[in-house]
Write a structure and sequence with these properties.
The chain is α/β, with parallel strands linked by helices. The chain is built from 13 helices and eight strands. Helices cover about 40% and strands about 15% of the residues. The termini are far apart.
Length: about 325
């Protein structure tokens, strides 16, 4: 008899069942091993990223398998809010989608339609071939599929922030997630996520979510900023990334240990010991005196050469 399986609870379920904000981190390395390490760290959720990270369908699948069984919610961000791409990610078994660049009510409606089977949406039917249904080992998967998927949309442009109330009103949008980096760029403030104008836009979206009764999350690596957004009503936060943690920690190792080697010494030359100039001069004199003494001794002790014979003249 084949196993009859049940899908995991969704991120929507996790947000509804908690009385505290959920803290998570990015998983961007593309490595199942790193993903599994992060899954066991004790965080509430992970975001496997395929928009700005070297991830494709195969590597996302491998990471989903690696983190399966750990008590952590897993979201996946596809590279684009596209019906065909979303279908492929769902069929892999992704249950929690974070969809980028949702700038309007129409974008949000398209995202929701992509995760639902007809007549409520446009998701293509391939459950018998797909990990999503565990190859039809989840009973009544087609009828229950919408309940096994959560949809979080990203608000990361000035247009999206202006339309946030309309986006939140779309049935099937379970949560919104604020991306201050792209939001800042769209405002002409590239790289200035902490700019007061950017932060005011984030605060506006958080307040709108509270009014709509839907969870809102935000990306912020600065601890003070994170706490400010939590105080403003954020329900979930991303507070770090695997690749960033590795980059900063390896740089710290280099700063701690490599800087003890003088910068003018090239790798491989550390064992070359320069003789101080004064000691070198003394050594040179000693060698010269030694050679002179050897010649003098040789002159005193060496036997005299016999005289060359002379030719008599008669």
């Amino acid at each position: 008899m084949p196993f009859r399986l049940e899908p995991d609870l969704t991120f929507r379920d996790a947000l509804l069942s908690t009385d505290r904000p959920l803290a998570g981190m990015w998983v961007c390395s593309g490595s199942p091993l790193v993903a599994e390490i992060c899954a066991g760290a004790g965080l509430d959720w992970l975001l496997i990223d395929a928009e700005h990270s070297p991830n494709g369908l195969e590597s996302v699948l491998a990471q989903l398998q690696a983190v399966n069984g750990y008590p952590v919610q897993v979201l996946v961000r596809p590279p684009v809010n596209d019906t065909v791409v979303i279908k492929q990610y769902l069929d892999l078994g992704v249950q929690n989608l974070l969809l980028p660049m949702v700038n309007s009510r129409l974008d949000a409606e398209a995202a929701v339609a992509a995760v639902r089977y007809p007549p409520y949406g446009v998701r293509g039917v391939g459950s018998a071939l797909a990990r999503a249904s565990r190859w039809n080992r989840i009973p009544d998967y087609l009828a229950r599929a919408s309940d096994t998927v959560s949809v979080t949309v990203q608000i990361e442009s000035e247009a999206a922030a202006a339309a946030v109330e309309e986006i939140l009103a779309v049935d099937g949008v379970d949560a919104i997630f604020l991306g201050p980096s792209d939001l800042a760029a769209s405002m002409g403030l590239l790289g200035q996520q902490e700019h007061p104008t950017v932060r005011a836009a984030v605060e506006h979206c958080l307040a709108a979510a509270l009014t709509a009764g839907k969870p809102a999350g935000v990306n912020a690596f600065n601890e003070d900023t994170v706490r400010d957004y939590l105080d403003s009503g954020a329900s979930f936060v991303l507070v770090g990334a695997d690749v960033a943690l590795l980059a900063r920690a390896s740089e710290k190792l280099a700063a701690t240990f490599v800087t003890q080697v003088p910068p003018e010494v090239m790798p491989g030359d550390e064992q070359v010991i320069e003789e101080p100039a004064a000691e070198a001069a003394v050594g040179d004199r000693a060698r010269a005196e030694g050679e002179e003494g050897e010649r003098a001794v040789a002159g005193r002790t060496a036997p005299a050469e016999p005289p060359e014979p002379t030719v008599a003249s008669y």
